[in-house]
Fold this sequence. Notes:
2 domains, Rossmann fold, 14% strand, single chain, 41% helix, alpha/beta, three-stranded parallel sheet, globular, 13 strands
Amino acid sequence: MTSERRSNNRQWRGRVIGAIAAGTVLFPLLAACGSDSDASQTNDARNATKTAAASESTSGGFPVTLTGAFGDVTIESKPERVLALSPTDADIVLSLGVTPIAIPTSAQTDATTNKTGLFPWAEGKYPAGTPKLDLSTAQSSTLEAILALEPDVMVGTAFYGLVDQTNAALKDVAPVVSYTTAPNGDSWQDSTRKVAKALGLESKGEEVIASAESTLTDAAAANPQLKGEKFNVLISPSASEVYILCSADDNLGRVMKEFGMVLSEYAQSVPCTNGRTKVSYENLDKLDADVLIAFPDTAEQMSYLTDQQLWNNLSAVKRGAVVEIPKTESVPAALAFPSAPSLEWAVGQMTPLIVEAAAK
């Protein structure tokens, strides 16, 4: 580490510790969707990361400048140590053939990945000994762990904790590649292109995008009967209400549009924040559609819906046109927080279920 970086890191450490003392949360709990973070990386994992980065194509000249929610960010030279700040960002980096220097985790990902921090499409992608980095809250140990990892660049296009104050602290350590509109708000294609440019791998990025788009296109072409089918997505039901997808331009909505399916008029007519809104059970009758998709946190949570008479009265429910997938089975995360590898995996899992439901 250069003396300049050491100086910057000392200044940054002082700033974040001061912020914690003042009660400021730099890493808000992820509201969408780990285990103890390890502040050090084994030599094997560190060397494997460097080897993977060095073997990649050097396409794209440096420095490069990217524009995001917090302004322009310039990356002076090709990064070797890439720190992903969310599982989606890690997916993007991995899809480009680069191994992140840590596995980003949170309480939410722990709950859906049996505390491994790895979804099925990311299993086997990291070398043994890669540390985990819990980004749920602003614990001083987490902030110190980021310093210890010595990243050349941080990627946070889908990191819900990346706000003005967080970015101001992190950018003193290394350039931060951010979202443009909102965390997980840009299309997965745009995020992939941005990260690919940051890593000097723009040609590889286009290959990754083309492959995933082809998978989606092929699935839609093989199932033309889905075109025009109306759907609703119900998420995390509780004792008195349920979240629904309320925007066709949310990442989950965009994926469903790839199949030619149409979000219901009711879902698109209600007040909507970040692609989600709450619906009380007295309004369940308004959610009928050709296909209903339910993403409970756990299989047991589905009983909140099935105990409701209005739910059981829906024509889709009576026909059996319901796709029920708990978040613990990873498909909801793959679709709602999409990357090229998550989508390619999810299409194989989800398509048969939607086709079966639509036929009823």
